From TrEMBL, chain A:
The lineage of its organism: Bacteria, Bacillati, Bacillota, Bacilli, Bacillales. One of its GO terms (biological process) is transmembrane transport. The chain crosses the membrane at residues 12-34, 71-91, 103-124, 136-159, 180-201, 237-258. Gene3D superfamilies: MetI-like. This is Carbohydrate ABC transporter permease.
UniProtKB/TrEMBL annotation, chain B:
It is found in: Cell membrane. PANTHER family: ABC TRANSPORTER PERMEASE PROTEIN. It comes from the Bacteria. Keywords: Cell membrane, Membrane, Transmembrane, Transmembrane helix, Transport. The chain crosses the membrane at residues 28-49, 92-114, 126-146, 187-212, 233-258, 292-316. SUPFAM superfamilies: MetI-like (SSF161098). This is Sugar ABC transporter permease. Gene3D superfamilies: MetI-like. CDD domains: TM_PBP2. GO terms for cellular component: plasma membrane. It comes from Fervidibacillus halotolerans.
Amino acid sequence: MEIRKLQKPLVYLILMLLSIFFLIPVYVMVITSIKPLDEVSLTEMWSLPSTIDLSSYSEAFGKLAPNFMNSIYLVVPATLFSALLGAMNGYVLSKWKFKGSEFLFTFILFGMFIPYQSILIPLIQFLREIGLYNSIAGLIFVHVVYGLPITTLMFRNFYANIPDEMIESAKIDGANFLGIFRHIILPLSISGFVVVGIWQFTNIWNEFLFAVTITQSDKQPIMVALQNLSGSQIVQWNVQMAGALMAAMPTLFVYILLGKYFVRGLLAGSVKG
Amino acid sequence: MEPGKSLNIGNKTRVEVKKRRKITKDQWMAILFLSPSIIILTIFVYGFIGWTGYVSLSNWNTIIPDFTFAGLKNYLFLFSDFRFQADLRNTIAFTVLFIGLVIILGLGLGILLDQKMVRGESIFRNIFFFPMALSFVVTGVVWQWLLNPSTGINLFLKKFGVEPKWYTDTTILAGFQWGKIEFGLPVAILAVVIAAVWQMTGFSLAMYLAGLRGIPDEIREAAKMDGCNEFQLYWKVIIPLLKPITMSVVIMMAHISLKIFDLVYAMTGPGANFVTDVPGVYMFETTFRGNYYANGAAIAIIMLLSVAIFIVPYLWSNRRGNS
């Protein structure tokens, strides 16, 4: 007991120091983004602004707003479709197992781990071929396809917790495959859809490799536009920080509101605990 | 091979037709439900990997596709290339440091937060979790500014007389000549490791917290009855029990780290002497900026193989564990 008492301040000290490390980027992002241009200098990085100047936000907004909207048009349908397909796969792979279904599950799952560089060249050729290159529709398609493994995994783990007896008794009552899916599984899937939806929303919003290779200029999602903004030497740091905050806002907002589900998704998506 | 596999399943179900008519119709529906995804992934994952493999063996190193057979020319070029050798060194250094730190921090914080004496546990937890909701691009932009050698953290460190050059440092620690490069620990990669650890520690922390909470109190009590002190309890009992979690964290972090692209691209780029370059960045630049498609494809295949070394045994053992 006495040892534990001595430990207590030490535990808090470690937690505090690490919290500072984790919050420093937020502090710098926020204070830099509200500084007037003449206070954004290399030596004054840590000091608070003398006045709050939001002009960097209006500049960042002017530059990034169209791309922000692109990301919205991309993320909403891509999340919905990939979640729906994941639910269908997860239903079969958890409740209608057949000989070889475990193999097919692994076959699907492998797609989650591949470096996307290894499919990128044919993918771009294919998208050019069907006329979806450099379009939001093309990106939606890509995210639905490559989102399938993770959504399948999450729904499979989620449905594994629904007792098989429910399915069995529904079968005895004469319900068929589709009937069970519609009337039993889907109504029980709401929190599953929330978890998968948040996960896909965050991932697709934050994704960069597909976005930067498949789209150009006015079709680019927010992360590519942010990267371009920070790559150009002319743009001041306060505008870059305001842009970074703007780009991070939707996923941060979702995390703050529904963080519990976000963590649940993380656990459901890490294969087996 | 894969269509053959699904045919097999068809045959199996057909055998069941004779036994139970009703189930079989549902079984067919189940296969029908699954088949769009299987077909799509057969083409877009396995087929496209095959196609990339084919491109990597071709002469397509100009803007116009050229599929004439080049053998292993592109691979031989890469392994003798200064930039790619540097990439291999950097990836090894980055992966080892990144995974090690994420595990130590995640486990350490998990154990601290799991103590019943900590108040405000959920506040701390959220502070450590929130970077996961951010994009690697955002992380890269912010840490590029924080670790800029003439500003940022260095304004503090200067007072203590140290001024690390962070990602602009070209020193290789413990270096020795290896092929065309100096092998060792590139100091500049530490800056990228810091940013990546900042972003991903929450992941391992969440996993370890879930694991720690799954360990019943009886086990802790039994260990204490046997005379374990606090340290022994963790070292000899809890941490071994968390081994499956550690495995999962290693697998998830390894595949993120071996294919990392966006963080490096947004934060540092290849760097002087390629001290912060990684295969993901090289592949992107040589393919889409330089039109060396065959070289890019070869890099991608090497990346895939490096991930597969970790993933395939893991998926295989999980599959056997399931059935």
